[in-house]
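Please fill in the sequence for the structure shown.

STRUCTURE ENCODING:
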């Protein structure tokens, strides 16, 4: 499974969440939820996000992205080959 943690090179953690009914006193109040799910196809080319903040913290998303993809999917074409340093 491709997670937010994987896609962000460990910078963002995957969320743990649950959906529950509101308490009775708030049942009539509208709620807004923002959800974002990703399940990319194998053919989708994922590129690392360039971030000055991450670089300043010592994270270089280009360094390990191809190695992680190769380790996880050893028999697949490396779409991130161009990012190897």
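FILLED IN BY: designer on duty
SEQUENCE:
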């Amino acid at each position: 499974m491709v997670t937010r943690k994987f896609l962000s090179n460990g910078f963002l953690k995957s969320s743990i969440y649950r959906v529950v009914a509101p308490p009775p006193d708030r049942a009539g109040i509208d709620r807004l939820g923002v959800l974002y799910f990703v399940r990319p196809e194998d053919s989708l080319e994922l590129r690392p996000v360039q971030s000055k903040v991450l670089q300043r913290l010592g994270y270089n998303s280009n360094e390990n992205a191809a190695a992680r993809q190769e380790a996880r999917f050893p028999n697949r074409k490396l779409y991130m080959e161009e990012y190897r340093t």
